[in-house]
Amino acid sequence: MTAERDLGGSVLQVIFSFFLGLVVTAFIAVGVNTFYPEPRGAYEGDAWMSHRLNTSIILLVCATLVMLLSLAIAKLGPVLANGALLGGLFTMIYAVGMGVSAGGQWQRFLVLTVALVVTVGVGWWKFSRGRATPPAAASGQAIGGGLPGDAEARLGAVEAKLVALGKALNG
User: Fold this and answer.
1) Of 26-40, 111-125, 149-163, which gets the smallest average pLDDT?
2) Among 13, 44, 130, 144, which one has the highest count of C-beta atoms within 10 angstroms of its own C-beta?
3) What is the pLDDT of residues 150-159, one digit of tens each?
4) How far apart are CA 17 and CA 163, in angstroms?
5) Quick one: DSSP state of residue 73?
6) Do residues 99 and 112 lie in contact, with contact meaning Cβ atoms separated by under 8 Å?
7) Which of 75, 157, 140, 43 is nearest to 84 (CA)?
8) Residue 45, SS3?
9) Distance between CA atoms of 109 and 5, rounded to whole angstroms?
10) Domains of the chain by residue range
């Protein structure tokens, strides 16, 4: 019964984090459109392209701030931090979409470059920083330790094959 309750709780947490990400994105999008509305009657031309580029940059800054906020609040709990991270990620997608439709080649490239750097940086900080390879895995020995049935032996066989494959590929 406890395992079912834990699974239900974790599914609900994932759903809540995803929904929070969507709400954060909508909040930012409505906020940007409220305080920096599209020029009236300009659906083409320089004014429209300039507005889309500026909106893309504003969204990019907002997305970066929300992603950094998600790193800062990580200790408060994974649900809110992951929701904020998703909100930043969805806003970044929106910013990239606006930037791609903005016209000028180098401006679009700059927006995409910043989006890439921020996304990779935040992803590295969130998912890779401080994680070390366990010594047993680094040496190619089986990690094992209490796996049910023959899973430990099967895992050891897979690890041995991976080590052999790595040696073969590395020469």
Assistant:
1) 149-163
2) 13
3) 777 777 777 7
4) 38
5) T
6) yes
7) 75
8) coil
9) 47
10) 2-127, 135-170
